[in-house]
Amino acid sequence: MTLDNILEEIKKAQNIVVLTHESPDGDAVSSSLSVMHAVKQLGKKVDVIIPEYSKDFNFLPGAELILKEGTIKNYDLAISVDCTDLKRLVGSKEYFETAKTTIEVDHHSVNAMFADYSYVDPAAPSCCQVLIAMFEYYGVEITKDLATCILTGIITDTGGFQWGGVTPETFEFAAELIRKGAKIKEICRIALRKKSKAHCELEKLVYNRLEYIEDGKIALAYLTLEDYKNLNTEMGDDEGLVEMLRDIEGVEVAVLLKEKEGTNGFKISLRSHETVNVSDIALLLGGGGHRGAAGCFIAGTVEQAKTKIVNAIKHELEK
Ligand code: 5GP
Ligand code: MN
After folding, report:
1. Dihedral (C-alpha) 10, 50, 180, 141: value to the nearest 10 degrees?
2. Looking at domain 2-192, what is its CATH homologous superfamily?
3. CATH number, span 197-317
């Protein structure tokens, strides 16, 4: 069974590297650190490589150990978490490609199964929930540090237990993690509700540029590189903006186009209430994600990207 094989590989490896997807969110950073804490219990040397992430996650126990690049070139074992395919391991892909053995743990329903051992549970609302189930099976001790990381991943990827995939089991895990010492109030304040001033300025821009399309079923806004530069933003400042559009009355699909440096194009964030499957829309354009939250990249000007994404959404709405 894959779970047993994974444990065996971890036990065999002398040096391990943990990797996650580009523009890492709370679940990505928390999953990476959770694996680090668990693997350390087995007495292994483990590096976590995340080239860039929001400083908001520096409250997570072990965040001070996150590296921008590896301490060696060829690891015995590479573990990817919360990532759908190899091309999303931006800045850390080489470590995955050169590792002797590879493992991935994920919860996205469309996953390229790109490792020697892929463990994917699409029913789980966060990768951290997949991990806690694995750790229980392995008999890993859930320390306060580990509990804090896991609960942060669950909370950020479910918008505080509100989004798809949350089941009674999610609350049972959360209760256990709180018993182990995770501070839910602190986690929610820092990882869920805290907004920077730059975020509030981006919020103003998004509301000013908000367009309703298809009788208000689509809410769309965009942010340019110039906006980000003018406001001196940091990574993570635009988190939560697309959800804000999704929650407007009558909106079925929310779209935020974010111009990306050095790409001549836009990263597209899509959200829905899960009646419309935005993952299908993103997949059509080479991206992916979940039924209610997905993304892709579109090259071109803002007008070109807008036309392309709106046509793809209209096509999905007509289904
Ligand atoms: P976000 O809009 O927050 O960047 O991403 C929402 C969800 O879609 C996340 O689960 C994220 O992993 C996924 N996602 C975003 N962009 C891409 C992409 O280009 N490819 C794939 N496969 N998934 C993506
Ligand atoms: Mn996730």
Report:
1. 10
2. inorganic pyrophosphatase (n-terminal core) (3.90.1640.10)
3. 3.10.310.30
pTM: 0.95
Contact 26 CB / ligand 1 (< 6 Å): no
Express each pLDDT in 66-82 by its tens digit. 999 999 999 999 999 99
Closest of 85, 104, 149 to residue 9, by C-alpha: 104
Separation of alpha carbons 162 and 54, rounded Å? 23
pLDDT digits (tens, 9 = 90+) for 299-310: 999 999 999 999
Question: Could you say which ligand is closest to the alpha carbon of residue 287?
Answer: 1
Query: According to CATH, where is 3.10.310.30 located in the chain?
Result: 197-317
Ligand 1 proximity of 112 Cβ (cutoff 6 Å): no
Give ranges for CATH 3.90.1640.10 in the chain.
2-192
Alpha-carbon distance of 33 to 51, in angstroms, equals 14
Pocket test for ligand 1, best of 158, 253, 269, 274 (most atoms within 8 A of CB): 269
Q: For ligand 1, is residue 289 a contact (CB within 6 Å)?
A: yes
